[in-house]
Amino acid sequence: MIRIELPRALHKHAHGSTVMEVDHPCANVSEALAALESQYPRVLDSVIDERGEVRTHVNVFVDERSIRFLSGLNTPVTDASTIVIVPAVSGG
């Protein structure tokens, strides 16, 4: 079962949920996020932009590794993967 953890900022779009579990096989992050979208459509709008890419102010991790340094949305997942969506933090 793939686990998707949502940041506090997205809880309102997920009816207060902090975690979603995908119980069917997904080959990559994109497929897992599509499963998330089927349950909570407004969440994905905050994660993916109009071009179908992860928004610049959002980080997505698979098993504690940023997908920006892997294969992006094509990063493979397994049934035991945990995907964590985190808003980017910046400052000076």
Care to describe what's here?
- The protein has 92 residues and is of the alpha+beta class.
- The protein has one domain (2-87): Ubiquitin-like (UB roll) (Roll).
- 20% of the residues lie in helices and 23% in strands.
- It is built from two helices and five strands; from the N terminus they run ββααβββ.
- It has helices at residues 29-39, 41-47, and strands at 2-5, 19-22, 58-62, 65-66, 82-87.
- Strands 2-1-5-3-4 form a five-stranded mixed β-sheet, covered by helices on one side.
- The longest helix is centred in the middle third of the chain and has 11 residues, at 29-39.
- The radius of gyration is 12 Å and the shape is globular.
- The termini are far apart.
- The model has no long low-confidence stretch (mean pLDDT 92).
List keywords for this structure.
92 residues, alpha+beta, Ubiquitin-like (UB roll)
What structural category do the secondary elements indicate?
Answer: alpha+beta
Q: Strand sequence of the main sheet, in spatial order? A: 2-1-5-3-4
Assign the CATH class. Answer: Alpha Beta
Number of strands: 5
Into how many domains do the coordinates divide?
Answer: 1
Q: State mean pLDDT (0 to 100 scale).
A: 92
Which term fits the overall shape?
globular
Radius of gyration: 12 Å
Residue ranges: pLDDT <50 for 5 or more in a row? none
